[in-house]
## 1
Amino acid sequence: SYEKLWLVASMVLIVGFIATVTYGAVGLGIAMIDDSESSIDPDGLDEDERFADPRVAEMDDGTYEAYVVAEQYRFNPDPLEVPANSTVTFHVTSPDVIHGYEIVGTNVNTMVIPGEVATMTVEFEEPGEYGVVCNEYCGAGHHGMEGEVHVV
Ligand code: CUA
């Protein structure tokens, strides 16, 4: 009957709308804020809006977000540059194996586990240069896996 046809047609429309909304939200990274802090597809960093382009970004409130990829055997970006007298929240992840992320002389010192995003906040006051080291054995190049944070 026509009634049944209309019912089916409207269901198709509703499913279509939901699919569109879901795709739009996920595609823009809006719906994933809650769980994206801790879990991420390690094979999908290239498509992740935070980690496809590792960087330091200034927020509307004047704080900074640093998106860092730790991979065999480097940190990206490197050197990482932040302004003096700034509050920086680091988000660090790995596409390959477990690494460490320690900014020597700060409270930033964490394991970096593929599939997870490590998040921590640090305040930088004076200008200076900090060494970054990987303190988890991650392979043959582990001992050379170093970076720098420049506070300018
Ligand atoms: Cu990366 Cu050790």
Note: The CA atoms of residues 23 and 31 lie 10 Å apart.
## 2
Amino acid sequence: MKKYVWLMYSMIAGWLFLAQSIEAQSKFQDVMQQRGLSEQDAIAALKVYQPSGKHDEYYVFASGGQSGQVLVYGVPSMRILKYISVFTPEPWQGYGFDTDSKEILREGNVRGREINWGDTHHPALSETNGVYDGQYLFINDKANARIAVINLKYFETSQIVVNPLFKSDHGGAFVTPNTEYILESCQYAAPLTNDYYPMEAYQDTYRGGVTFWKFDKEKGRILPEESFTLELPPYMQDLTDAGKGISDGWGFTNSFNSELYTGGIEKGFPPFEAGCSRSDTDYLHVYNWKKLAELAKDAKNVKIINNHKVIPIDVAVKNNALFLIPENKSPHGVDVNPNGQYIIVSGKLDTHASVYDFKKILQQIDNKEFVGKDSYGIPILDLKKSLHGQLELGLGHLHNSFGKEDGIVYSSLYVDSQIVKWDYKNLKIYDRVNIHYNVGHLEAMEGKSADPQGKYLIALNKLAIDRFLPVGPLHPQNNQLIDIGDKKMELLYDLPIPLGEPHQAASIRASKIHPEVRYPMGTNPKTNQPHIGKTLAGEEHIVRKGDHMYIYATMVRSHINPEHITVNKGDKVTMYITNVERAEDETHGFTIDHHDIHVSVEPGETAQIDFVADIEGVFPYYCTEFCSALHLEMMGYFLVKDPKKDYDWSQ
Ligand code: RUQ
């Protein structure tokens, strides 16, 4: 009997389930029809959609290009999570509007000049044994040759260093396998000193180089005193990668303009791009950074330029630490594979990708087997003897990112607007997918680390053309998400980016990132130390020291304490504001009207603002972040009186 009931029950349940799934099926079909989606579209949608509250599997940190910022989004949903302000003021976060963040921005002053933008190109994640450890992010500013450090505990920029020699960098930031150094290579050669030399003096006085910024992981800071630069000829150094595994200790930087061409179209010379690409080959620079770091410790090996240690070319050569290998003309990306044996150089003006074998390179170096020297005395290795092989990929090969399976790499073809999946060991092409349009960098998940994850790939495209609703002549940028989990690559999603050109992106498993949701009470988030103005609830007060007013304030739902601040016209004002909330996401913002002041105060943070109260009047201040039902009531008055005036308000 029991059995019979059970059978009946399962039959009914089965029918119900079937009916339900038929109903769901037809709803599904209806939606597809209404929205004009193909089956393939629907599958792509299911692969990227994240239901509310569900988190992504990967973080992507993309450069914000001309915005001077870093963009953070999740994969596979492609939902934008944050803009980290780096080289550029950003009002929402108060970056560049409060005293502490201004100090960081002003670390980036170049020769005493305030710079308020940056051209961010290459984000790099900190590594331990070549694997991303989720602690720090570094990014370069090509325009002003700067490197910034972002602390991923708080997603805040914590340091900017200015290259003391270079006038522009492109090959940065790249890290060595244990983040001992952050590599920054010069792009457009110029005198390393800040002096004038005419173009005619190019070969003699203009130089390139690679700077090795010493990084202290404990402190989370670059140590400029322990950093140094390898001087290089004025070939335009381009992208760089540090060796790992068997090539750990070595670095690889490619270049264009082995011609040493200096342009001068106005004097009737061929234009720069033509003069720069006359020869069939350029140079891959190969250097032993561990040896260079040792050399830099001894004063007799370095010259000091602008207070910074420089290892001259001849010292590096004499110590067997610097070599050149020809590479097919005007290459672009250089990428070391996960175990460090193979180095893939992209053929920007050549249809071939070149795969160099580090073992073969080392063999020639050990045997001192050189084919000659360049005009700066640097030994040149044989191209053929250094190659594992070459493979014709297509037109405009720019960058490479490694897949999970051994030997698999994905490469971008700018001119052909494609991503190619191929095998760099067996030199075989597996698949191609079309990109919209003209892809620059690409990033397979953790694809530049020693532990690539495959699964998804981002194409960072240079053009969007017709992909989005038109918004005038300046189009958004387009990052495309591609499924690389199967044999065939499949385009899933387009993310419009209205911020600046995301040149390169670095991705990492979300499980490796552990950001805080609040600061220890009274923290200065730019130093991660207790702020001198830390103020707890009940400790609010105002003190006058001469003509300097110090205000120790707190913010908590739904009041600002103090609520009235009266100062004399001309007083200097320092205001410390502590958000004494412990609740997650209860950020308060603070502004005083007419004073170009805005700070964001996260739970536990103390922010400092400094200004002169130089205009008389009454200025409401308020919380700029809607934080509670009584948010509008969260305000106060800043009053500036002229001490010489008699205010008779009673009649
Ligand atoms: S890039 S144009 Cu292909 Cu890395 Cu800066």
Note: The pocket of RUQ is lined by residues 121-122, 170, 239, 332, 398-399, 440-441, 503-504 (CB under 6 Å).
